[in-house]
């Protein structure tokens, strides 16, 4: 096993100073065959080192008759914890290639395990690197990766005559709009990336001649997934 960088993982996203990051929303499985050796890749979103260890133990039990269970994970941000294992393969031929695939996609909070059933033919160091790399890629291609964005839920109250202008301004910045509520005025909730908030508020006030009421309600982490918009956590900024 190798440890790269800081091994500490801060689970509280609010304290990790990033505006967005890439991660895996839904894990998947891939498989390749190389000279009769079978490489099974499994991808998991993770939140802690303890969770990674538990998944590894379950994988070893599930594929109890396999020769190798090689893996790598990246966890947290600023800095990230990176760990990997060749699990008996020649040094640098399994864990590192898997880790490099994760790094190449700029992913964090993800574990990739590649289980190998030996097919009777030695692959050599170059062959092993290619095989573990290809398996990890295949596993991630069968997973769903997302960009989690640090944003603010902005409540916009305005006259009906300003609704079209507001929706245009939000759409021009690719800001996600939630369903409006119609009363004597229109209320619209928007998920605004933190770095866009100042400029957007200025545009909204100018576009409505200062008549819109803007209320920053909650901070959150959100993402566009295959299932639609997902809000992962919300909090009040202290």
Automatic annotation (TrEMBL):
GO biological process, alphabetically ordered: regulation of translational initiation
GO annotation, cellular component aspect: cytoplasm
Domain of life according to the entry: Bacteria
Domain Impact N-terminal as annotated: residue spans: 35-138
InterPro entries listed in its UniProt record: EFG_III/V, Impact, Impact_N, Impact_N_sf, Impact_YigZ-like, Ribosomal_Su5_D2-typ_SF, UPF0029_Impact_C, UPF0029_Impact_CS
Gene3D superfamilies from the UniProt entry: 3.30.70.240, Impact, N-terminal domain
Pfam families tied to this protein: DUF1949, Impact_N
Positions of the UPF0029 domain: 156-211
Coiled coil: none
Family, per entry: Belongs to the IMPACT family.
NCBIfam families, alphabetized: IMPACT_YIGZ (TIGR00257)
Protein name: YigZ family protein
Species for this entry: [Ruminococcus] lactaris
